Amino acid sequence: MKRQHPTRRLLLIAAALCGTAGLHAQAQAQSDYPNKPIKLVVGYSAGGPTDVLARVLGQDIGATLGQPLVVENKPGVNGNIATDFVRQAAPDGYTLIVNTISHNVNPLLQPDRIKYDPVKDFTPISMVAVLPQLIVVAGDSPYKTLGDLVKKAQTGPSAVSYGTAGVGGSAHLAAALLEQRSKTQMNHIPFKGNAPALTEVMAGRVDFMFFPMIGVSDFVTSGKVRILAATTAKRHPDYPQVPTTAELGFPGFEDYAQPIGFIAPAGLPAPIAAKLDAAIATALNKPPMQARLKSLGAEVKHLGPAEYREWLAQDRTRWSQLIKSANIKAE
Length: 331
Description:
- 42% of the residues lie in helices and 19% in strands.
- It is of the alpha/beta class.
- The protein folds into 2 domains: 35-130 and 257-325, 3-Layer(aba) Sandwich (D-Maltodextrin-Binding Protein, domain 2); 133-254, Periplasmic binding protein-like II (D-Maltodextrin-Binding Protein, domain 2).
- It has a 6-stranded mixed β-sheet with strand order 2-1-3-10-4-11, sandwiched between helices. It has a 5-stranded mixed β-sheet with strand order 7-6-8-5-9.
């Protein structure tokens, strides 16, 4: 047998020891996690729904983990600036993003500009909630039911108009889905936010819109807004008199609800993902947290790392099919 040169043998032993030391250090880092604050990135401005949800959940999760979750807002390009920032961060569990529908939709709407894979380039940790929507019209609108509105839309292209907070947002995609399911072609009028769109709906200059559950109850009570339908799987306890879209002949809208979840860069070690998910689940199981999220228009829906990865893949397929068939283009 050929004997190894002593120097080479020493180098091989040193390499093996370094490898063992590296594995030990990695295991130690995972067992000690977290030992410093965690950055929680939000792709939208402070004070918006995603930001508020991030701060509410982050405070409770941080208490469980023993380290604060510090929210950092990086608004711009419909959340893509924040997404790209997190994609390039170290997969050590200290940089996370609170994702929304834009995580899956952005690459579909702008494939030439946004290149990331929403599943492969990230490590899904947890889904925490979905944000259902309401179909609303002005309080004095001639449309008393969703059937009335659809019947009018079926009389011809652009016979009915709808407002949104912009191209590719959850309200736009939901309306595009309604167009497809009702075999109509409506007039899309994008605004810079939900508030100005709702103002035009209440004034009767725009026929309807899909609006988040939070913030609409006062307008309903004052008679400025009428709700035609909810995109929930079952009637919402806050609006028991409002039928679901499924009841009215348009099933499946609950599958297209906007998700809120926690995602890390690709390569996050499974033990760290599991530890984060456990802290998130602990927060979501608390009745006060459930009540707080409900007050923000969210429905709690917890999925762990494997389930959330599968859900995101399915959701991507749903949006891809809709965007393609409805020929939705980015602004």
